[in-house]
Amino acid sequence: MCRWLGYHGSPIAPRELVHDTAHSLIEQSRRAAPDMATANGDGVGLGWYGGDPEPALFRSESPAWGDANLREVAGAVRSGLFLAHVRAATGTPVQQTNCHPFRYRSWLFVHNGYIADFARIRRELLLSVAPELFGNIEGSTDSELMFHLALTFGLEGDPIGGLERMAGFVEAVGRAAGIAEPLQMTVGVTDGERLYAARYASGPVVNTLHVSEEVGALRALYPADERWRHFAEDSRAVVSEPLADLPGLWHEVPAGTALTVQAGEDEEVPFRPTQP
């Protein structure tokens, strides 16, 4: 199981979430989940927005906990919108081009999960990517292919709808091949203005996803805690697993739900895969 986080709010150093919290993404990368034999040591990535519409990208096939360059970058950068990811490979090689986030123009994408029996249906899925997008695929993961299928099915104009059509298409192809539960996913995707996330699986077991509560509420809960002072009221973190144990800090995103984090009020709606 991979793990990822997204942040939207006042500019901060990504290191605050990637390294410095009690259960930071780096700490999560060191330990395996209860049903996993190995930790998330198959690569790490950070994508962030600065002054340009196209995001910057750092990716490495090194284990996250030992990558000194990641620590330097995550401490030097200041960004109000970023995605970070630690990878546990599910059958594709450990190489830089297979590390998340994946980028297309102003968009970034991260994924935790898998397409079941990916090798069996990979060719059919690949051939469904729009020809003008195909050259942007650099690696061999199911995650990067899911991103380009979502782009093919209208992600840029309708982010949640594009993700729903991608999920519906993967499920249809998988089930036609006799795969009972084709898809497991939590995904994060952003265009540099909003952060979109979805939690869904074809079967009853769904990977976890959480979003932080309003900063104002946290200040009221923990008035002596200095950590919240430099965060804007609408700052949010979306995470695979909570980064700290503070009661009241995290809201679990329900299974079958899509989330939009933006300036102002967030939106939470049902996630309904559909055939494109």
UniProtKB/TrEMBL annotation:
Q: Report whether Cell division shows up as a keyword of the record.
A: no
* Pfam families membership: GATase_4 (PF13230)
Q: What is this protein called?
A: Class II glutamine amidotransferase
Q: Which PANTHER family match?
A: GLUTAMINE AMIDOTRANSFERASE DUG3-RELATED
Bilayer-crossing residues are none
Keywords attached to this entry:
Glutamine amidotransferase
In terms of InterPro entries, this protein maps to: EgtC-like, Gamma-glu_amide_hydrolase, GATase_2_dom, Ntn_hydrolases_N
Q: What residues does the Glutamine amidotransferase type-2 domain cover?
A: 2-264
Q: Does the keyword Nucleotide-binding apply?
A: no
